[in-house]
Design brief:
Elements lengths: L11 H20 L11 E6 L5 H12 L3 E5 L12 H10 L4 E6 L4 H6 L5 E7 L5 H14 L7 E5 L6 H12 L3 E5 L14 E3 L2 H6 L4 E4 L15 H8 L3 H10 L2 E3 L22 H18 L17
Parallel strand pairs: 1-2, 1-3, 3-4, 5-6, 5-8, 6-7, 8-9
Bound molecules: phosphoric acid mono(formamide)ester (CP).
Phosphoric acid mono(formamide)ester binds next to helix 2.
């Protein structure tokens, strides 16, 4: 494979391979922490048009651990601010013979468009409300660390599913691994996409009666909301958030809590969740490095360009 653009097109065997490789890289990181020469002589360019802490820094660490040369393309100080298009930017960068392009953009499908213009391996680091494939892989990896066979386990994804590329990628991947997925959120923000096997709830108690093993909270993305239709943040916390009272119930039931970050404390969850013994939020951040090492190692720059016009689902 030249690119990683989505989860939808990955075969189960490819996912299993990537998760096994992530285990090997995590062992390597925790045992020696030394660089390995897997990408020696290769160059990785980070092209982030939207802010990022976890994805950006873990890709950078992952690439450096694999001995690649990493360049951060600073969008704010580039000719993009003078109106240069993404196409011209990519052509310019291509002339510099980059091997891997890691792209985050607010436009769904943009990494796919770039992948068809360049021989570099393109990795989607989050495109609009479309996909965030490496987040899904690290989520699945984190769940597999707790349940070695996750088949039949239940993951309840809470929040603004409609605008969430994480919800789309993670729910798709978990289902490919045989995990049951349900969505909970305001009716207008829980879309109908995905197979009929996905349960959709608007009521917290009813969703918890579904008996999840993992409660996965999505970040409230105010930057993508039509505020007219969104409850106040205080209301959101009361209706869908993990309050102190709900955390106590979650603790008694022994459920795991996940969140892709960044967390809006007091909105998706109360402060006490950060100290909850079954919170996997820090595990997710840590696992991002091993998983992204596995992805970089797996892709082959210079391979066939992807076929035109992949089918991006519209909402
Ligand atoms: N989960 C995630 O994508 O976080 P960042 O926006 O910090 O990269």
């Amino acid at each position: 494979r030249k690119d990683l653009l989505d989860i939808a097109s990955l075969q189960r065997e490819e996912i299993e391979l990537l998760l096994d490789q992530s285990t090997a890289f995590k062992k390597l990181l925790t045992s020696s922490g030394k660089k390995v020469p897997v990408l020696e002589g290769k160059s990785v360019l980070m092209l982030f048009y939207e802010p990022s802490t976890r994805t950006h820094s873990s890709f950078e660490v992952a690439a450096k651990r694999l001995s690649a040369e990493v360049t951060n393309f600073n969008v704010a100080h580039s000719s993009i601010t003078k109106g240069e298009s993404v196409r011209e930017t990519v052509e310019t960068l291509q002339a510099m013979r980059t091997d891997y392009l890691i792209v985050r953009h607010s436009r769904s499908g943009l990494p796919g468009l770039i992948a068809r213009q360049t021989k570099a391996a393109v990795i989607n680091a989050g495109d609009g409300a479309h996909e965030h494939p490496t987040q899904a892989l690290l989520d699945a990896f984190t769940i597999k660390e707790k349940f070695s066979d996750p088949r039949g386990k239940k993951v309840l994804i809470i929040g603004d599913v409609l605008h969430s590329r994480v919800a789309r990628s993670t729910s798709t991947l978990l289902q490919k691994l045989g995990v049951e997925v349900a969505f909970l959120g305001p009716g207008s923000l829980v879309p109908k996409y995905g197979p009929a096997t996905i349960c959709r709830f608007t009521n917290y108690q009813q969703a918890m009666a579904w008996a999840p093993d993992v409660v996965y909270l999505l970040r409230v993305q105010m930057e993508r909301q039509d505020v007219q239709f969104f409850p106040s943040l205080r209301e959101y916390h009361r209706i869908y958030g993990i309050t102190n009272t709900r955390l106590e119930e979650i603790r008694q039931r022994g459920l795991y809590i996940m969140h892709p970050g960044p967390v809006n404390r007091g909105v998706e969850l109360c402060d006490a969740v950060m100290d909850y013994e079954r919170s996997l939020i820090n595990n997710q951040a840590e696992n991002g490095i091993a998983v992204r090492m596995a992805v970089l190692d797996w892709l082959t720059p210079g391979g066939d360009l992807p076929k035109p016009e992949p089918a991006y689902a519209t909402r």
